[in-house]
Amino acid sequence: MKNEAKNILYIHLHDSERFVVSSGMNFREFAYSLQLPLSNLLLLKHKFEDAEFNMNTLLEYVNQENVVKLLRENVHDYGDFCWIDFEEESGMDELDGNELAELLYLGHCKNHLRPPFYRKLNNEFVYLAQDDSWFNKIYYRSLSNYFKLMGQLVPLKIGSLRAERTWLGIRKRSEYPPIPAEIFQRLGRLMAEGMVFSFHEVHQSRNRLEIPAWIVGDYLNMDDMAEGYNQIKHEKPHALIVFHRKTKEWSLTIGN
User: What DSSP element (H or E) covers 153?
Assistant: First the structure.
């Protein structure tokens, strides 16, 4: 089922705890969809060979200048790939034993003991992945940043997966404007139930492009999620995100 991950995006939003479980978004897509570049990353689980070592935490990290090297890596092959961003390198040296224990628990169990946002690190995210893009769990200090990220991510995936043919017969990737964050805020209630956006089932016409989405439920096993999606994908979608070609604007239709 893992080959289908590039054609769908599964989202299960846990708004009260400020994290999202997903399948179908990889580390590179995440980074490219952010409003600001990633800062320094404290690596909790990884296989990156060019990381630096911090003596206080006994963990490796990547400074902002070298994040671009990490973005070139095939982190999917790492297996577990987990990190937390931080603002200043001095913040790592101030972490105490309890905070370090919480960070190690995050990387090992992909769960939190308490909300994983630390004053000493001033982190915006915690990124916890197993076979990156197949299972990702990401904590967001601000869910408004998540809705903005989705507004960049979905057009990015459409542009990379759906190629249109020019009058010369040359295939080119279409560029779509960002989707307003308000559309995903309106979808928040449905994403809290577990929702799949399908790029394989996108419908295109001369005037519009429609991205269908179905409520599939709460999953941690993504093989089960993919099977659940396959059982429902021929039914009427629960929502459509629509791109209007003439106005170059996005709209949302939610079914009854």
Answer: helix 143-161
- Residues 199-228: pLDDT tens digits? 999 999 999 999 999 999 999 999 999 999
Strand partners, 209: 204, 243
- Write the pLDDT tens digit of every residue in 111-145: 999 999 999 999 999 999 999 999 999 999 999 99
| Domain regions of the chain by residue span | 26-132, 145-254
CA pair distance 44, 76, nearest whole angstrom: 15
Segments in the chain below pLDDT 50: 1, 3, 164-171
Q: Do the beta carbons of residue 85 and residue 39 sit within 8 Å?
A: yes
Which residues lie below 8 Å from residue 112, measured CB to CB, with a gap of 6+? 17, 19, 102, 105, 106, 126, 139
Contacts of residue 49, defined as CB under 8 A and 6 or more positions apart, other chains included, come to none
Q: How far is it, in rounded angstroms, from Cα 18 to Cα 8?
A: 22
Whole-angstrom Cα distance, residue 2 to residue 26? 13
Using alpha carbons, list the distances in angstroms from residue 19 to 30, 35, 138, 139: 14, 18, 5, 4
Q: SS3 string of 196-214?
A: EEECCCCEECCCEEEEEEE
Q: Can you say whether the dihedral through the CA atoms of 155, 157, 158, 163 is positive or negative? A: positive
pTM of the model: 0.92
